[in-house]
Amino acid sequence: MSSEIKADKWSPASGTSATIGDSGDTFTVPSGVTLDTSSSTLTLPSSAITGQTAITSLADTDKFLVSDASDSGNLKYVEKQYLGGGGSLVYLGGINSSNYSASKLQLQQVFADDYRRYKVLGKFQGTGNGADVEFRWLNSSNGELISNYYTITDGMKSNSVTVSNEEWIDWNATKTRMFRDTATGSHIHSFTMELFPNQNENVNYPTAIFQTQTWDYNNGGNRQRIIQGANYVEVTTSIAGGGIQFESTSGLFGTVNVSIWGYKDS
Amino acid sequence: MCQYGDIRIVNMADKKLIFNGVSGKTEIVDLTAEEQTIRDAKVKAWNDASGDRKLAQIKQMRLQKLMETDYLANSDVTMPDNIKTWRQSLRDLPQDFSTEEQYDLLLARDEQGNLTHTIWSKP
Q1: Which residues of chain A have a CB within 8 Å of the CB of B18?
Q2: Pairs from B55-64 (Cβ < 8 Å, separation ≥ 24)
Q3: Arithmetic mean of pLDDT over chain A
Q4: Which conformational region is residue A170 in: left (phi greater than 0), alpha (psi within -120 to 50 degrees), or beta?
Q5: pLDDT band at residue A203 using 50, 70 and 90 as cut-offs
Q6: Chain B residues with CB within 8 Å of chain A CB
Q7: Average pLDDT of every residue of chain B
């Protein structure tokens, strides 16, 4: 048997509190009905958030509930894509492997419209004694840019007894020599790069600034070398959607750890 | 033919280690035939230039040694004859040592990493 209560106001029969229903009951507010609590206090159960299904990544259109300070604190939502946060460094991926014995390392198709600049950190062991490691840009089809590299470097090297300058240029060359005369064995060669593929600019000369720390083979008389360098490639074809490559002139890469991040401006 | 019978030498393709930003995958793949041809030519050119690289290194070491005694050429200093002779020997290195085997002798080091050829020792 069902019945309908019609009253303009509900109040506790005594005191200041009352209960609706019993455990297990469900009360439904039908479509079209407004339950206006805007002038009162609405207490949510503590499981209102933790009782929901968790997600492990956010889409740009995922929404957060906010109180709009510019509109009397009215509740509104903001989408994840507008959260900003003053820019950020976003990990895009990389290679972390040991002893695959490759002569080339490629980070393909890592440049995206979301970023204008990139950071690369890496280290490796291996290659042949005395080998150079060369850098090249890749286009979106993973093809290598093979001309018009203009590179300058300078730095220092030391075998603990003497210190001397080191510098080289690759002018209008087919690649940039980032490392020269590398030593094999347990020696680790490390580097950092800032990349400016300029894929969002009108002029597409891709540019890289790098620092390297390496152990020279030096015909068996190992010495440490630090180099800073920069290159630009005089090409006007875009490398949007492209990436970068490292290649040894002889021998193979052993343990490799290379990662790339994108700078997000906002 | 060797004691184990016929051995057919098969050239193994070089490999490249790839991370792809679109797929998010890392993989190791063989160079294509075209890439391998370019790679082989590059390695050959590198190996062929071994002597040139060693000579460049020798010249750099020679420059360092000459610079260490340049002060003796000042007008107010008398350069000893044995230093003159030694500096001339350094200058003559490219003509007196012209093969890669001779370059290796000049670049040889002991277990402590010290150069062993006597020409590097200042008299």
Answers
A1: 95, 105-108
A2: B55/B94, B55/B103, B57/A218, B57/A219, B57/B107, B58/B93, B58/B94, B58/B97, B58/B103, B58/B106, B58/B107, B59/B93, B59/B94, B61/B115, B61/B120, B62/B90, B62/B91, B62/B93, B64/A162, B64/A164
A3: 90
A4: beta
A5: low
A6: 14-22, 24, 26, 28, 31, 39, 42-43, 46-47, 53-54, 57, 64, 107-109, 113-115
A7: 88
